[in-house]
Amino acid sequence: MSADSPEVLITRVDVDLPLPHYAHPGDAGADLVTRIDFSLAPFERRRVPTGIALALPDGYAAFVHPRSGLAAKHGITIVNAPGTVDAGYRGEIEVTLYNSDPEHSVSFHRGDRIAQLVIQQVARARFVEAEVLPGSVRGEAGFGSSGGWAAAHG
């Protein structure tokens, strides 16, 4: 960790589970594990407790991301990805997992890695109402306005 890494206070709801940790140097996400055994049927979602609670420094938030291996191999994702943990929240972190596989259930056991926690510095905006917004190159063009995949491969 570098000297400018934020200090995040943590308590274990379950003292037998590991603290979040980074698997490799340079990783952005620290592994979160499940506190319980459970299975997800096809198209089922479930809130899963992780056994930890945090106190983030003011000006920071934690974002809960899916694990790429679970998504690629089993179709397991997070319903509200990324989930946001605000600096003022002190409860146990829970992850709302979803099984997008149409045919197969997936079983998890206590201590299995289920998500990644990314800590980021965030700005709090000061919202100022305006009668008219300044112009931009993009203007009001919305979803798909850059042409997307079809334009590049058409």
What does this molecule look like?
The chain has 154 residues and is mostly beta strands. The chain has one domain: Distorted Sandwich (Deoxyuridine 5'-Triphosphate Nucleotidohydrolase, Chain A). It is 8% helix and 36% strand. It contains 2 helices and 10 strands, in the order βββββαβββββα. It has helices spanning 68-74, 148-153; strands at residues 9-12, 30-33, 38-40, 45-55, 60-66, 76-78, 83-85, 92-99, 106-108, 113-121. The strands form 3 sheets. A 4-stranded antiparallel beta sheet has the order 1-4-8-6. It has a 4-stranded antiparallel beta sheet with strand order 2-10-5-7. The longest helix is centred in the middle third of the chain and has 7 residues, at 68-74. The chain is globular and about 55 Å long. The termini are far apart. 19% of the residues are buried. The mean pLDDT is 92.
Strand order of the largest sheet: 1-4-8-6
- Number of E strands: 10
How many separate helices? 2
Q: Describe the largest sheet.
A: 4 strands, antiparallel
Total number of distinct structural domains? 1
Measured by DSSP, the beta-strand proportion falls in 35-45%
The third-level CATH topology is Deoxyuridine 5'-Triphosphate Nucleotidohydrolase, Chain A
- CATH superfamily membership, which one? Deoxyuridine triphosphatase (dUTPase)
CATH classification, class level: Mainly Beta
User: Shape from CA axes?
Assistant: globular
Low-pLDDT sequence parts: none
Output mean pLDDT. 92
Specify Rg, calculated over alpha carbons.
19 Å
* Second rung of CATH, namely the architecture: Distorted Sandwich
H and E string: EEEEEHEEEEEH
Helix content: under 10%
Structural class: mainly beta
Distance between the termini: 46 Å
